[in-house]
């Protein structure tokens, strides 16, 4: 199981491909729970050599933190990632040999918005900073440098979190 997402039929499923393209599928068009289902590749047109890497399902107003293994990232809403056609939309710019990290939810319906970002490298380094230091990129792109990486080091992941005491 990759994950579960609490969503409504009016929400959208976002699929992030290995080439940085995003594909959007209305949740209402997904197969029901009865039967064997169908592969996501029947609902989207992946380019040759591309594989679906990460998924998210939620409201159009949901905000996600997107990052690449090169250490760059930005935030965008699900509404910014919608594409009209099945071939998706170029959204996350990846450098040579880079891969997309799993998206992190910054804000979603019913959740408190994130206040900080934590970045972890494969070399064992961790960096945290306030979310307000990031910028929105509604048209996608490369984003800002989240963490400075040494040679042969890469970003393992970036996660948005709320720093509060309860």
What do you see in this structure?
The chain has no helices and eleven strands. The mean pLDDT is 91. By secondary structure, it is an all-beta fold. β4 (63-67) and β5 (72-77) form a beta hairpin. A four-stranded antiparallel β-sheet has the order 3-1-2-6, with no helix packed on it. Strands 7-4-5-10 form a four-stranded antiparallel β-sheet, with no helix packed on it. A three-stranded antiparallel β-sheet has the order 9-8-11, with no helix packed on it. Helices cover 0% and strands 34% of the residues.
Topology:
Layout: E1 12-17, E2 21-26, E3 52-58, E4 63-67, E5 72-77, E6 89-90, E7 104-107, E8 116-121, E9 126-130, E10 144-145, E11 155-161
Antiparallel strand pairs: 1-2, 1-3, 2-6, 4-5, 4-7, 5-10, 8-9, 8-11
